[in-house]
Amino acid sequence: MYQEHEVVKDNNFYRYIFENVRDPVLIIRPDGRIIDANRAIIEAVGFTKTELLSMNVSDLRPLSEKPKVCEDLGRSREGCVFETIYQRRDGRVFPVEISTQGATLGGELVFLEIIRDITRRKQADEAVNRLRATLEKSQEIAHLGSWELDLENNLLTWSDEAYRIFGLKPQEFGATYEAFLEVVHPDDRATVDDAYSSSIRLGKKSYEIDHRIVWKRTGEIRFVHEKCEHFRDRWGNITRSVGIVQDITERKMAEDALRASEERFRNFFENAGVGIVIGNTDKKYLAVNDRFCEITGYSREELLKMGCGELVHPDDQEADHFEVQRLLRGEASSFIREFRYVHASGSTVWVRLNISIMRGNRPEDHRLIGVVEEITEQKRAEEARERLLKEVEDQRTRLQAILDSLPVGVWIADATGRMVMTNDITRVIWGGKAPVSERIEDYNQYKFWWSETGERAMAEDMPLARAITHGETRKNILIDIERFDGTRGSELISGAPIRDSGGEIIGGVVIIQDISELRRTEEELKAAKAQAELYLDLMGHDISNMHQIILMQLELALSVMDEEGKLDARHRDMLDIPFKTLERSVNLIHNVRMLQKIRSGEYRAEPLDLSSVIREIVNMYSEVPGRNVTIQYSASPGQTVMASPLIKDVMSNLVDNAVKHAQDPVLIGIGVSQVEHRGIAYYRVSVEDNGSGIPDEKKDLIFQRFKRGQTTAKGTGLGLYIVKTLVESFGGRVEVEDRIAGDHTRGARFSVYLPVAEAG
Amino acid sequence: MSDEYCVGIVDDEEMLVRTYRMLFERQHIPLSFIALDSTEAIEKFKAASPRPKVMIIDYRLPRASGIEVMHEILRMEPDTKTIFISADGDIGEESLKAGATIFFKKPVRTKEIIAAVRSLLIK
Fold first, then answer.
1. B87–A541 CB contact, under 8 Å
2. Are B80 and B55 in contact, with CB atoms under 8 Å apart?
3. Is A65 helix (H, G, I), strand (E, B) or coil?
4. Which of A50, A216, A289, B56 has the highest CB neighbour number within 10 Å of its CB?
5. Do B107 and A559 touch (CB under 8 A)?
6. A581 touches B at CB < 8 Å
């Protein structure tokens, strides 16, 4: 009884416990069917007990967890703890930790499952994980790693970022102090080790150090900043050290770059080839470089005490002030000005100032930055250039004036053929226009033809183009032009290149001479000459025929009268007059024809022996009927002159004149001597007489055409004119003088100069 | 003087040829013909029988020059003697080279003409 009672009592007791335990409990069969459930589970899942007792544990799991039920049941026999998810009657799910244990109940195997809602635990875990992830991310973003050394357990831990900073994969191996030293740059290793060791040894609370590390994988050297703090126990023993490690490579490089940049700027400032000044709004120098000192002649110390405007030349100060005020008022951000400084030595220095303003937050923080370039030499060169330009312009003006005063057209072009200068006559020649030509092709605007061939001249063949492109000099080429007003003209054109001192062609010049009028006159003259020659020829021929008729008729008449005995002395005298007149007329015609031939160059000079010519003349006049004539001449053979055989006529004319103009006894002297005149050798043949001579005022006239000197002799007036013309046609000349100087009444001396023929 | 020793004259100046005719008649020198131009001269020379032994030829003639007339005459009768007369003395050399026997520059004296003609006629 007791036993039954005790059993019942025990059952009640356990039921009580089962029902009132705070943890939800289920008793299930191995197939998962629920055979009992306590109050806590009913509250947790929201099902009634009756409902639960008709369910399988898999019914308490959401769909995603159902497949695991079998596995979970399989290991429940041995007892285990696992986590899964339960789904309440209202559909809400929650995480649970199930502790299961197999047991025998009434000889039947059952599983006792104690279910614990782990929703809060899960939430705490997630919060911790998020925090850790945030910390990791923060470390990663900040390139800030951390480490902790537990000295009691000699355990070192590195954060993920610490691994990354050291060039390692997070947690790729267990961190040790030795592994850390391995990462440190070999040159910094001892220092880093000593920093840590000495901080412990010396009992420091913390220390900081910057050092290099080397990434093993890539060999890259990076910079880190480390800070370490020691924690102690109540007895002062260091129990752990906590440190942060920060990758400062970028910052370090930026600092280095900045330092280098500052260095460069300082170098630039100090060593610049231009002056650089920094001033404030009070126009005081705050900084000046060496070059500026050099430009102004003042030391840096002197300049820093001076006002910026003090150096400016008095004449330039107003403008300087004006420009600076514009900058300060914000009307301009910079300006460039050329002006003068007064050098410390008192001399004037030309500078080009490029000044700009660097604005600060407050007006007094504004800075004026000036770059000063000395341009004294440049200014001098500019002034010299301006002087030169003016000189060139003056010369050009003078040249233009000269060109405009020339009676010929002048056209000057540069090496490209561009017309650079021309003159008034050019425009006149081309009918009031001289279109500008920019290049050689443009010359085709000017229409002209080669007179010789009648072919049109193309631009590239024109003398100016040939001078520029081929360096050709061409002179006096006859061309026909069509002017811009449509009229035509004849021109003489010459072209030549213009070269610089090195012989390079830098242009060309062409000269155009309008010979239209000249050519017209020439043509008319030629026609008139041809006509005159024709008339002369016809007249000479016809008059000669008339002379022939008169002469023959007179002689026939004389002969008839003589035969018939009707010719007495009186008749002879009367008939002598027409004979003599006829003779003069014949001479006149002869002389005129001879002049015509001399003029047309028909008598060519050839080497002639003077002595034989003179001897012939002497013989001719050795006996003049009714006259007493003596000719003195001593011949010298070998005297050869250049003349035509007509020189005999010259000599006979002179001797004949002497005979005619002198009273008996006539004494004529002929002499030959060699003389030189203007570098040319002549034989001078002098013929002197004892006649009535030629007064001074008549001496020039006797050689002129249709003029006669005062003389008792008869003549046509052409004799000495022909002598002069003939001798000059041989390159000689004729002179007359008194035989006795100063007394013309005692005879004249004619001298004929004939060029000496060259031997051979 | 026999007719076979006759003279022919070519000159375009009528008054002159009339004077020649008077002169030769007076000197009893037979005239074969007188021609006033070159064509007439050649035709008359060709037609003349006997042909003149001496020809007096003026240089300047209508139609063709005296030189050409002389060439034609000498071609027909190479033995013909020719007296060339011109107002232009420069023609002398040219005419002699061309075959003239004597050259006279106008004006020439009648006695010179007669002497020349006579001397040539008897050659």
1. yes
2. yes
3. helix
4. B56
5. no
6. no
